[in-house]
Design a protein that fits this description.
By secondary structure, the protein is α/β, with parallel strands linked by helices. Helices cover about 35% and strands about 15% of the residues. A 3-stranded mixed sheet has the order 3-2-11.
Length: about 475
Amino acid sequence: MTKLVGDAAWFTNVGNEHRQVLMSVLTDSEGAGLLPMATGLVQRYKDAGKAPPRVLYVTRDCCATVGQSKVAAMFGEWQQLVVRLDVWHFMQGFKKGFNADNQQLCSLFMAHLSTAIFEWDSSDLFRLEEAKQSEDEGDACVQLTSKELASHCRRRTRGALETEPLIQEVLDYFWVATDGMGIPFIDHAKMEEVWSTQRRHLRCIQDPPGVELYVKTGEVSMGGVMLPAFRCARGSTSLESFHRHMCRFFPRRFAHALNFQVYLLEGLVRWNENCARAALEDNPKTMLCGNSTLLQNQVNQLSQKLFGRTVIKDYIQLSEYTGELIGLEYLYSQRGAVLPQDVGRDPDASNGTDSLEEDWEDERDDEQLLDAGWCKEELHGLPWPPLPVPLPEEASGQAATHRGPLAPTLYIIATQATAASSSSITAPAINFAPAITFAPAITIAPTITIAPASASAPAITSASNPASAVPRSTAW
């Protein structure tokens, strides 16, 4: 992302175990710059009358040598909060010790590393093997795919004491490995430094005791055996998926600040609506062709007037604006400025970015990639073209010239709760309470829905039953 003015380089997102995004802000720094966002989330829980989350997954600052970690300090009011490091980011840290970017050896190393950290639930594994044998007419040797394991089997961390020697065995196994050109796969000096650092975080990646990180979403028949389907709330995987879709929120490569804000909010609404429907156990198909809450409200009003009934049964009115800032508004507030609301401006007027048009000669090809749901760097290994956004000037009045990439910071909240079925829920809902997953994840439960809900900030919906706990954001 490239800014015409300003040096913001951090996009921080907070999500829940249903993959919904509770907050998305653009900042020019981490740490103290995120304190207002954290304060708003804490207040949102308090206003809803729900118990605070229990687990917080982060990408960094998971622990401290003395006292609380930085992240735990930001959520100081949640005294029972347990901060955990996202396992995926822990594993990615070992790549700093690689001497060569050998994809084949790297994938093999990561597979062995994952085995050293996790173990499969024996009962789930036995049930899946039994189903595969029945499907293959009693074949004693069955092949379990990674997709089948992830869908029908739960796994848990082994514990720090057991994990440390297993990781050491993986390092010893690859210590003298070389690629096809004879280049050593591991830089011994770098890997020793990496391992000395990562060893201190082994306790930070362990599953918190007493918190259920898996939710049963349904059942699947295989070989006459009914297999449960699980969804895991551990870590920041859901936010990683969200980051891949963020590039689809913006129809063009550059945008005015207000347009950028609108694109982001509209994208968050669509993302949260889709994730809310997927969170239902029965996952009923919707007849809606869009996510416009304004249009849904108008349809219900007309149908009530003409036919005496509402057409969209699961529609819930937008909740009251909480005052939290989202997206660019958060960044502007850090600079002591206000996002310009120049809605009446001529849409054809120049915003100073016309000269950038000529930089996108391959725009048509890239738009096709966006339609297919891929980011350019995923297909070609190239950086995504910058997205110019005019931001407020520095306090000194001098415009910054930073053109660095947008670095996503993941924060996710996961709640420990059984998935609601469509028989008891008539609308997509997001359940919150006991646990939390931050910076890539939070684990929680009861029944409160929180999601971006207004053109300028997220709103909060609290209800006594899941049917009224439906995340809704403003529609554009």
